[in-house]
Amino acid sequence: MTPEPPDRGEPLRALRGIHDVLYPQSARWESLIATFAQLASQAGYRLLVSPLLEDASVFRRGIGSGSQVVGKEMYEFSDRDGTMVALRPEGTASVARAFVQHHLRAPWKVWYVTSAFRHERPQAGRYREHHQLGVEALGPQDPDLDVEVIWLAHRLLTEVGTDRLSLSVNSIGDARCRPGYLASLRGYLGPLMGELCKDHAGRVEVNPLRVLDCKRPECMSVTAEAPRFTDHLCPECSEHFERVLEGLEALSIQARFEPRLVRGLDYYTRTTFEFASSAMEAAQNGVGGGGRYDGLVEAMGGPPTPGVGFGLGVERVLLARGPSGADDTVVGVDAYLIDLGDGSSARDLCAKLRLAGISCDRAFGERSLKASMRTADRLGAMSAVIIGDQERARGTVSVRPLRGGEQTEVALGELSGVLASMRDSTR
Ligand code: HAM
Q1: Is 336's C-beta closer than 6 angstroms to any atom of ligand 1?
Q2: Residue 287: CB within 6 Å of ligand 1?
Q3: pTM of the prediction?
């Protein structure tokens, strides 16, 4: 059967809640990712690139089918072979899956940058495809590793100028102390069930922790007085949390204890933390979060291997940059070459200049000097380098600075030096 010809009537658009990132915003992404990559590799984390598409079980088992992210938001479908697959809604479960699949040895520290898909109601700061920068450290259960991970996120958020940043921390215990806490929480919530929001009124028996996570006013007012996990921690979890708090203090990271911080993914154990920026609306003010997940590798079929990490939302981090971080100067190329002949000089000179470390672009095809100058300006080039017949005959070019200054004629052999010193003088 021949396929239907495409309907060319309507211009096509990206899906709702899914965006292109265009220049100059993409330059801000580039710089955020570069800063993060440097910080993470300085701390011994190595880049991991893992697939966007996974067997849906990776997330069902890893994050939990009862979580909102998996139960209500995950893009899950059967592929052409009938395998249930899912677009990753977050990065951590795939990291644990990769650790198990490749029989890696702990300690294993990785960083990543990934797309994440969640079928949420799109609004400012909430998208159906967002991007996360994250680290995961598998192996040690040492609380100082929790502190290292929190320090890294804090360092990045501070370095990029996040406005009105705050950090909340909590501990949600482990398999030993959780049953006791859940029983106490159910006992508290049971008689108040009728006062909870419609989504959570029926969840008290199944997963009462989700009620603590709910940000609706009805649930928030009920949970304000709820029992605190930290009052039910076993001695080992309690000692772990004390050491985390001590480490944060030692590194001068201010953290607020938030007893309701359980986070929406079921894999968390012990430490949970979240960074928020009050520069954004409350519902979307979480710029990043993370915690410990000591049972996740086992859930993926691997040996008992504790882990801790964080994910920061790229879009939200950029939205939350304050005046100190919002440096919007667009940096264009050092030179834009305009060859008024057949283009051979621009072709050869571009290659030479780039090898000499000068960033340059050029006009292609037959265009007027005026049109090419307008393009040079729009691209934010520092100078236009014009190669006309007279210059060609003399072995020179004309350098016209685009941000103030006189046009000069420069010998070809001196061009890269002249452009480099023009660039350095504006830095
Ligand atoms: P998460 O809190 O679900 O954690 O997501 C991390 C961050 O991604 C959030 O704090 C937020 O900045 C951003 N984010 C989440 N959903 C959206 C959305 N729909 N639109 C825009 N930004 C969004 C995790 O995903 C865990 N994997 C973090 C982690 C790593 N825990 C341990 N290791």
Answers
A1: no
A2: yes
A3: 0.92
